[in-house]
Amino acid sequence: MNARTDLELVGLVKHYGDAVAVAGIDLKIAGGAYCCLLGPSGCGKTSTLRMIAGHELPTEGSVLLAGREITELSPAERGTAMMFQSYALFPHLTVLQNVAFSAQMKGVAKAEREAKAGQLLELVAMTPYAQRLPAALSGGQQQRVALARALMTQPRVLLLDEPLSALDPFLRIKMRAELQRWHRELGMTFVHVTHSQEEAMALADLVVVMNHGRIEQAGPAREVFERPRTEFVARFIGAHNVITTPGGKLAVRSDRCELSGGEASAGGLPVVVRAIEYQGNHVLVHLVQPGTTETADDDAPSAAWVASMPDAKFHQQPIAPGQQLSLHWTEADAHSLAA
Ligand SMILES: Nc1ncnc2c1ncn2[C@@H]1O[C@H](COP(=O)(O)OP(=O)(O)OP(=O)(O)O)[C@@H](O)[C@H]1O
User: ABC transporter domain spans which residues (predicted)?
Assistant: First the structure.
């Protein structure tokens, strides 16, 4: 990590008329980190990224890169580069010309800009496609070109807005590995916006979970998963049960929950099996409070839980919908959620 290239957001606020997109964000991203801004649609991720990129002016607050205030600098002056969701390649320019475009605008000589663009195409394994037009490329190939084009400005921070959302699930997983490799090889800071917790977990050193224009939790992926701070984070990250007790709300991982037979069993939370989902190496047992109707359940997610168990264990003693069981967990696996 290079402390000199830390990116800092200080008291960042963005209003669009009466709408509050970002309600006050303080965040420090270490130089060289892979940061994912994660959250549901409308939580303010893209607005935050656009303020870092210089495509949007904050209503309040500032953006600092390597200790230098860059809040009001133009996108080209601040040392960041954005890779857009739609890739936004020029359709009438070849791959090489697309990558060289920003240098052409700056008046860099043809031979020099094409040599630099050629090096970047090599980095993203697109050299054989240099003379093609974007329309003759697959989604994954277009994305590689978009990355090479963003790198042409030699940014310290690469900003990625939902970079994998246009790809099919198979390609998305392949491109995740490529992003990791590029991040490692380039050694620069990546800030990646996503609504996919799986993507954030797979990629980020720093996961920033956002809700209603604020940060709910920021930390390493494992910390956020192991210790979600709030009910929102536990639910959004998934694979957790939120259990209401007289002492407050608890989060317990669904793979740490155990089921035991019948109402007669001592302790535990009485539950009824609503559905079974086979997942290959494990089985998800969906549970509700006894007496819950389907409609009421949809309106009250807090009264629904999941026990995730290894497939071998499930098949030893299969469970069926409608069965009454008890849900158990150990104290060590439960932790309190902030009110
Ligand atoms: N130009 C705009 N004018 C008015 N409101 C806007 C504008 N841009 C965003 N908003 C509003 O600000 C809020 C945050 O939007 P933003 O795009 O930052 O969220 P997001 O988390 O990136 O969502 P998504 O994942 O859907 O892109 C939303 O309620 C949105 O409707």
Answer: 7-237
